[in-house]
Amino acid sequence: MPQRKELTEICHKVYEKEFVAAYDGNLSVRMDEKRILITPSGKNKGDVEEKDLLEIDYHGNLLQGEGKVSTEAKIHLVAYQKRPDVSAVIHCHPVYSTAFAAIGEGLMRPIFPEVILSLGKVPLCKYGTPSTDDLPNSMLPYIDFVWALLLENHGAVTFGKNIKGAYFRMEKLEHAAKTIYIARTMGREKNLPISKLKELYSLAEEVYGIKIDKRNRFDF
């Protein structure tokens, strides 16, 4: 599927899922070594059309399209500059994930096997004012090895090898955050035992075909 069409469809999905409201959020894909396709500033994601998407370079300069480049493009640029394996970035404000970011808590406990394998650790990045370099700089301690981040008092970011992969990580992140919230209303979530965590990691590559960076593994 052409990149513009696919990115537009995912924009509609994040709005339908209520991962964004009003003009919130921004999504992008890596086109090649010189161009990035990204959503414009001030456009509701449910209304985005292919013609609205902008092409920018790796310094955030507009190359093609009519519209304003979001100041939060810096979030995307730091990911593409630091991670050659990342070809898509999604920044949203999903309610439950953002609630964790608002109370200053990342998702850093090994609870759900599928989350451990697909996301790994989800660290909390120190608050950075939107449009300033503090925001992308807050991602630097983790950007080399994570697939999802919470931005303190702000929202969430997920990365993927393609836009669908980044979207499904955002969906998985929000589902996990919501489930943990519900678990806490019933008592308290429990970590997987160390023995089961080790077993899961031993099966990850052999059975599931998933390579997990050692830095993104939960400590034993």
General description of the model:
The structure is a single chain. With 220 residues, the protein is of the alpha+beta class. The chain has one domain (3-216): L-fuculose-1-phosphate Aldolase, CATH 3.40.225. The chain has helices at residues 3-16, 73-82, 95-102, 113-118, 134-137, 163-186, 194-208; strands at 26-30, 36-38, 54-56, 62-64, 88-92, 124-125, 148-151, 155-160. The protein has an 8-stranded mixed sheet, with helices on both faces. Helix 5 links the parallel strand 6 (124-125) and strand 7 (148-151). The chain is globular. The model has no long low-confidence stretch (mean pLDDT 96).
Entry keywords:
220 residues; L-fuculose-1-phosphate Aldolase; 8 strands; eight-stranded mixed beta sheet; 37% helix; globular; alpha+beta
Can you identify the CATH superfamily?
A: Class II aldolase/adducin N-terminal domain
User: How many separate domains make up the residues?
Assistant: 1
**Strand numbers in spatial order across the main sheet:** 4-3-2-1-5-8-7-6
Shape: globular
| Termini Cα gap | 42 Å
- The fraction of residues in strands falls at 5-15%
> How many separate helices?
7
Instruction: List segments where confidence is low: pLDDT < 50 over at least 5 consecutive residues.
Output: none
Describe the structure concisely.
The chain has 220 residues and is an alpha+beta fold. Helices cover 37% and strands 14% of the residues.
